[in-house]
Design brief:
Blueprint (H helix, E strand, L loop, with lengths): L3 E7 L3 H12 L7 E6 L6 H7 L3 E4 L5 H11 L4 E5 L4 E2 L3 H11 L3 E11 L3 H23 L8 E5 H7 L12 H8 L5 E13 L6 H21 L2 H36 L1
Parallel strand pairs: 1-2, 1-4, 2-3, 6-8
Antiparallel strand pairs: 4-7, 5-8, 6-7
């Protein structure tokens, strides 16, 4: 069985972080390591992290990509989970990560969606369909495969090692999930798991300016990555990667039978 690290970037989110850490403490399968990355907080983020038994590191350069990178670099687990400070993981979140990665050696990264809290039922439903559903659909077309959702994803340690040098660490407008989705090699198997649940704060909808800023950063990230590898080339490479993965999955499915047959013939 592999080990699971959970990385949580945090900037002045002590109260939400407190709840996230409490949810992790109540997991059906405890994470082997929790890392909180303090990205320059002026509140009691560090005290909250240490009180919960988390490992706390500091990343003084502001930016969620910077903080995520610092956390992934410091993590020791075989699987690196990623939550936001306002994420509220379901009780089986870590257990499900472990099960999915153990069951499929071709799986390099796994992501799920979220359910918004702190808002009414109408906004919750619309945000889930339009905001999150639209993100997965639109970015999936743009990138050529399933994108990662920053509040709820995980990847293998070796995948991060192979990908790290391709992220735009010095770009202050880079979304960590979107930039990492582009940076992952086309051979990396990425799955969406609709049962991998987290609660997500509805605060992005508090102001139109905040939403416009997020959208501007997203289109900036698209432009930066398309300048390096064009849309059609990226889609073609990802399609080839999916074909190779399916072939590897088929080979893995028949290998035990083949070995058993060989042993029987040898006997």
């Amino acid at each position: 069985m592999g080990t699971v690290s959970v990385v949580i970037p945090s900037l002045n989110d002590a109260r939400m972080l407190e709840q996230c850490l409490a949810d992790l403490a109540a997991q059906t399968r405890a994470p082997d390591e929790i890392i909180v990355v303090d990205n320059g907080s002026t509140d009691d983020t560090a005290a909250v992290a240490l009180a919960a038994g988390a490992r706390m590191i500091r990343e003084p350069v502001r930016g969620v990509l910077r903080a995520t990178t610092a956390g992934f670099d410091a993590a020791r687990g075989d699987v690196l989970g990623r939550l936001d400070a306002d994420s509220r993981p379901a009780p089986d979140w870590v257990e499900r990560l472990e099960a999915r990665f153990e069951a499929d050696a071709t799986l390099g990264a796994l992501t799920g969606t979220g359910v918004f809290y702190g808002c009414g039922p109408v906004l919750r439903t619309l945000a889930g369909i339009v905001y999150l559903g639209g993100y997965f659909w639109f970015m999936g077309m743009i990138i050529g495969r399933t994108p990662l959702f920053g509040s709820n994803f995980a990847l293998r340690r070796e995948v991060w090692g192979a990908t790290r040098e391709r992220v735009h660490l010095d770009d202050p407008r880079a979304h960590d999930d979107l930039d990492l989705s582009f940076a992952l090699g086309p051979e990396v198997g990425v799955d969406y798991d609709r049962e991998l649940h987290v609660g997500v704060s509805a605060r992005p909808f508090d102001s139109g300016a905040g939403l416009r800023r997020r959208a501007a950063w997203a289109f900036h990230g698209i432009a930066v990555n398309w300048a390096e590898i064009g849309w059609w080339t990226r889609r073609r490479r990802c399609a080839r990667g999916r074909r190779l993965r399916r072939a590897a999955q088929r080979a893995a499915a028949v290998r035990p039978l083949t070995r058993g047959s060989d042993q029987g013939l040898a006997a």
